[in-house]
Amino acid sequence: MAFGRYFGGFFLLAVLGLAGCHELGHVDGLGDYGNAGGELAGEIAYVDTRAREIELRADSGRTSKVKYDNRTKVIYRQREHVVADLEPGDYVAMRTQQDRDGRLYTDLITVRDSVQERGGYGGSGRADRFETVEGRVQHIDARRGTFEIRNRSNRAVVVLVPYNPPRPVSDRFNRLREGDHVRLEGRFIGEGRFEMENFL
């Protein structure tokens, strides 16, 4: 988590009733909106604060997208935080239910291990290891803070601009136009999805 580095090496003492499941899946069946709930556990792949959506990835690699809103609570070391504090690589448990459109929604997220506690991004030895990608811009979604490029293999890659990016990154994104050639530094967080750190 973005705040994980500021606390001592204490363990998470309470998970507020969330079971220790390390496989992404429901502990209880989901029913009608507000009537039944379930639990998901896994690693944060990314948080889309514009769409208010979290992608969660299990140890098996299976992913699920979960909606949230401004009532969603994040608990870390018995302190309450906001969803924007979550970082890719944080290992969490979510209390979930379905909304009226059948989409998963969470009102409570408990952080079991922050990315810092797990030794870096995703706890898999990829910390501070950036990749590069380049291509021509095909589509820009300023509202979501994403854009799509075609790489050298002519494959589509969706690029996620970091939340609250540094001014040079924000300015460059705002000037971006379809057809521009870009070279980027960051990490792949899934098939065809690239979380950028900087323009090169």
How large a portion of the residues is in β-strands, by DSSP E?
Answer: 35-45%
Mean pLDDT: 76
Radius of gyration: 18 Å
Structural class: mainly beta
Backbone shape: elongated
Low-confidence regions:
5-36, 121-128
Question: With helices defined by DSSP (H or I, 4 residues minimum), what is the helix count?
Answer: 1
Number of strands: 12
The string of secondary-structure elements, in order, is EEEEEEEEEEHEE
Helix content: under 10%
Spatial gap, N to C terminus:
26 Å
Largest sheet: 7 strands, mixed
What does this structure look like?
The protein has one helix and twelve strands. The protein is mainly beta. It is 4% helix and 42% strand. A hairpin with a 4-residue loop joins strand 1 and strand 2 (53-57). The protein has one helix at 167-175, and strands spanning 38-48, 53-57, 63-67, 73-76, 79-81, 91-98, 104-113, 131-141, 146-150, 156-160, 181-190, 193-199.
Write a compact overview of the structure shown.
The protein is mainly β and 200 residues long. Helix content is 4%, strand content 42%.
SSE diagram, text form:
Blueprint: E1 38-48, E2 53-57, E3 63-67, E4 73-76, E5 79-81, E6 91-98, E7 104-113, E8 131-141, E9 146-150, E10 156-160, H1 167-175, E11 181-190, E12 193-199
Parallel strand pairs: 4-7, 10-12
Antiparallel strand pairs: 1-2, 1-6, 2-3, 4-5, 6-7, 8-9, 8-11, 9-10, 11-12
Short key terms for the protein model shown above:
200 residues, mainly beta, seven-stranded mixed β-sheet, 1 helix
